[in-house]
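I'll show a typical protein example:
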Amino acid sequence: MKKDAADAVGMVKALKERALDLGASDIFLSAGSKPSCRINNKTIFFDDEPAVTNALLEFYLMAQLGAENQGVLKDRTEYDFAISSEDSGKRFRANVFWQMGGLSIVFRYIPEVVPSFEQLNLPNQIKKALEYKNGLVLVTGAMGSGKSTTLASLVDLINKQQHKHIVTIEDPIEFIHHNELSLIEQRELEIHTKDFSKAIRSCLRQAADVILVGELRNLETIQAAITAAETGALVLGTLHTNGATGAVNRLIDVFPPDQQNQIRTQLADVMRCVVWQTLLPLKNENKRVAAFEILFQNYAVSSLIRDNKTFQLDSIIETGQMDGMVSMKKTIEWLLSNDLITQEVAHRTLPQDFSAPSLTGK
């Protein structure tokens, strides 16, 4: 049994290393299918490898989850965990789930060192978000758009430049931070806390200056994050939405109708910055480039949120360059004018604006 588990670990490790050598962001091991990986948002099969077996994945999980978690998949249909390779130091976020053919595991590679603003090509004005002493800062976008990496870079910058107490609440812990000027304490769902919202509320008694919430996924978590932002902490979080306006609406709409006026008032006071990001394929390279939309709080933004006129926020973003704002449309225009992306990509990203003269170049 031990030999089978050790062999399984070795086989999975070899597949992960092969995928990383090809520049993959994700590795897919699905019982009944050949191993595959995602490279620049395309799923590529390893055609020269045999199909993954359910036994291989069971033995691998037996070795990695430990005795205390051996039966976790008997009680659940999916399970998240993070793992570091003892010899290489490489770290992965993993999701295990059941599907028709048996078990599947998806690995997401997490770089050992948090990428810097310069390495990520993040807009410099996002650093303005770190000047706030309290409030809510959101990074939003589709799955796989780099939200967690952007937040990790923000936390790293605070750690290097400010004397703060930072608490992260993640599912699972992804980037590992080490104390520099700040004290950083990282908590993982199910291991260090049972509930996002309770962990956020506990941060207030832990004297946290900065709270990172891996995902604002439900009403209780969002309410706790808003309360923490009101109470005096700077709360950083992610949402799976497109557009800065969409993010604001999502926070409001998750609440029952009779609570939404109160939430609008609270958000108008605590919302500091919303960053929408997406990754687009470069025109002449097998790589991707990040595109951003950025909304910062000002008097007009707060008034529109409070007065239930969020549909006008896009206009504020378009004219808010002096406050550091930029619309996704302007970003796409810049990428097109510099011949970095194709018009087809622009159309897929902003179909409603594709016919505009500035986008078509006519």
In short: The longest strand covers residues 271-281. The two ends are 67 Å apart (CA to CA).
